[in-house]
User: Fold this.
Amino acid sequence: MARVVITAKVKDAAKWEEAFRTHGGLLGTMAQNRTYFSTNDDNEVVLYSEPSDLDKYMEVLDSPDTAEAMATDGVIRESVKVFVLDEVFVY
Assistant:
């Protein structure tokens, strides 16, 4: 199972969350069925997903539909960072 973390700056975190919650159909095409997320007072967001197919997830993430959704939601595109968690520290 893949684990993906995405961080970004948005214009308004409250408006971003409201708009983000309308994208269930798009998110459902990304080989996942839930996304964990949080925002802070600095208009930063973080999302965590566990897609069953990382290639499909990345394909949809890089699609014009996702770019349009991000623009509509107020995501500052150049701030987006994607991390595929590929290391584990067991202690």
Observations:
- The mean pLDDT is 97.
- The longest strand covers residues 4-9.
- Helices lie at 13-20, 24-28, 54-61, 64-73.
- The beta strands are 4-9, 35-39, 44-49, 81-84.
